[in-house]
Write a structure and sequence with these properties.
alpha/beta, D-Maltodextrin-Binding Protein, domain 2, 10-stranded mixed beta sheet, two-stranded parallel sheet, 12 helices, 36% helix, globular, disordered N terminus
């Protein structure tokens, strides 16, 4: 349903909102390599066919995580990196970027778990391994199964910033004297991995993109988003900066790369921003539908 709606929006609107300077008849073998965040990846995939038809530029889209996208950009293996977090100071000095939308980290549990809300301190207790059971006698046993993320994933970076914990898979220099996520936590790759694990394990807890959580929940995946520090996660609470684990969605590219810049600006058109919202992400402009 989502791809069909997105395609309809883009077919009817995308061409009307292309910015000046974006070619309409490029070399048919021309391409842009866009690597990185699996949170942003479905959005870029949704606009790829129509971007090709409007500009003649093919998009080579690959996931792998925000840090891998930046690594590919540094090594000239990508023209743009998809980064689902705020850039740090060194990255801001090294690259230029355009924020195309916003997302949030959903803390998710299995639908059979009676838990509906959690605080930052409770989350810290669970992820350090201090708290090991839910207290609800959830079958087959009540032991909490922790699901974290692999290093290089933007979701992990944002979770670490919010919780004050750090992955045990980080380097010794990065860990320093910080409190660690429990070593027995499972480490997933893409958001889909976490969603499937939590959906299949009654006592599991994990953190994923809000957009992915809502799409798979609507499709019948048995997961529940928790209220965090008293705030319900929805697009309005993210837009109004009320939800405490909000994050930027960025397209990052080398300074002076006009082709990459033109593509990034095209993602700010009305049609593109509507496509972003159809994927349950939060646009940077008011697109006037679904609010």
């Amino acid at each position: 349903m989502f791809p069909a709606l997105i395609k309809l929006l883009i077919l009817s609107l995308f061409g009307c909102y292309l910015l000046p300077g974006i070619a309409l008849a490029a070399d048919p073998v021309d391409q842009l390599r866009i690597h990185g965040s699996t949170t942003i990846q479905p959005f870029i995939e949704a606009v790829a066919t129509d971007y090709l038809s409007r500009t003649g530029i093919k998009l080579d889209i690959r996931g792998g995580g925000s840090s891998n996208g930046l690594k590919a950009l540094r090594q000239d293996e990508a023209d743009l990196a998809m980064v689902s977090r705020r850039l740090n100071q060194l990255e801001l000095q090294e690259f230029t970027h355009i924020t195309i939308g916003f997302d949030a980290l959903a803390i998710i549990v299995n639908r059979s778990n009676p838990t509906t809300r959690i605080t930052r301190e409770e989350l810290r207790g669970i992820y350090t391994g201090t708290r090991t059971t839910w207290g609800y006698d959830i079958p087959p046993n009540d032991d909490i199964i922790l699901i974290s993320k692999q290093t290089g994933r933007g979701t992990l970076d944002v979770f670490e910033e919010f919780s004050g914990l750090i992955s045990p898979s980080r380097s010794e220099h990065e860990k320093k004297d910080q409190e660690l996520i429990a070593a027995h936590a499972w480490e997933s790759g893409a958001n889909l991995d976490t969603i499937l694990w939590v959906g299949g394990l009654p006592t599991a807890i994990g953190f994923v993109s809000m957009g992915d959580a809502e799409r798979f929940q609507s499709a019948g995946q048995p997961i529940r988003k928790l209220i965090v520090d008293g705030v319900l996660l929805d697009r309005l609470s993210v837009q109004e900066r009320e939800y405490p684990i909000r994050r930027e969605l960025n397209l990052v590219f080398q300074r002076g790369d006009r082709r990459a810049q033109a593509f990034a600006y095209a993602m700010l058109t009305m049609a593109s921003q509507q496509a972003l919202q159809m994927l349950n992400l939060v646009p940077v402009i008011d697109v006037g539908i679904g609010w």
